[in-house]
């Protein structure tokens, strides 16, 4: 876990339109020592991508209002500063074509809902290089 007393804790951008799921993901991510910026739709996420510092990781739903998660991957990967930011897709879309589409677009990992919180933590640690 990252030292919570650090003056500049790493951040995560979580994009999830379901309030309950968003709060659960926020809780899980915070347990890994990251501060969380939460967006509830694709438009808000795009505005954040254009205005905030690059986070340590992005966790994206696919089915979002205004701009979907697939489009957001493209927006993220087009920005030079964000190009190497790890992205985990966390979605109810479980078809192979959706998984392949996300990975081909530039996502680093793909998890399906319902998800196991400890599995999400492990995947975050792997991508952000947080010791277990």
Describe the model.
- The chain has a five-stranded parallel β-sheet, sandwiched between helices.
- The protein has five helices and five strands, in the order E-H-E-H-E-H-E-H-E-H.
- The protein is an alpha/beta fold and 132 residues long.
- The protein starts with 10 loop residues before the first strand and ends with a helix.
- The protein has a single domain, classed as Rossmann fold, CATH 3.40.50.2300.
- It has helices at 19-30, 42-51, 69-78, 96-105, 117-128; strands at residues 11-15, 35-39, 57-60, 87-91, 109-112.
- The model is unreliable at 1-6 (pLDDT under 50).
- Helix 2 packs parallel to helix 3 (69-78).
What is the fourth-level CATH superfamily?
A: Response regulator
Report the C-alpha radius of gyration, rounded: 14 Å
By secondary-structure content and strand pairing, the structural class works out as alpha/beta
| Count of individual helical segments | 5
3D shape = globular
In a nutshell, what does this entry contain?
With 132 residues, the protein is of the alpha/beta class. It has helices at residues 19-30, 42-51, 69-78, 96-105, 117-128; strands at 11-15, 35-39, 57-60, 87-91, 109-112. Strands 2-1-3-4-5 form a 5-stranded parallel β-sheet, sandwiched between helices.
What attributes does this structure have?
132 residues, alpha/beta, Rossmann fold, five-stranded parallel beta sheet, 5 helices, 5 strands, 41% helix, disordered N terminus
List the helices and strands and how they pair.
Elements: E1 11-15, H1 19-30, E2 35-39, H2 42-51, E3 57-60, H3 69-78, E4 87-91, H4 96-105, E5 109-112, H5 117-128
Parallel strand pairs: 1-2, 1-3, 3-4, 4-5
């Amino acid at each position: 876990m990252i030292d919570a007393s650090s003056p500049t804790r790493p951040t995560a951008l979580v994009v999830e339109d379901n309030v309950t799921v968003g709060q659960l993901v926020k809780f899980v991510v915070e347990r890994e020592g990251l501060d969380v910026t939460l967006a509830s739709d694709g438009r808000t996420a795009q505005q954040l991508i254009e205005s905030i510092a690059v986070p340590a990781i992005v966790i994206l739903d696919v089915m979002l209002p205004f701009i979907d998660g697939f489009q957001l991957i493209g927006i993220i990967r087009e920005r030079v500063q964000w190009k190497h930011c790890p992205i985990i897709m966390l979605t109810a879309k479980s078809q192979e074509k959706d998984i392949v589409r996300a990975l081909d677009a530039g996502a680093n990992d793909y998890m399906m809902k319902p998800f196991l919180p400890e599995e999400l933590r492990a995947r975050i640690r792997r991508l952000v290089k947080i010791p277990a």
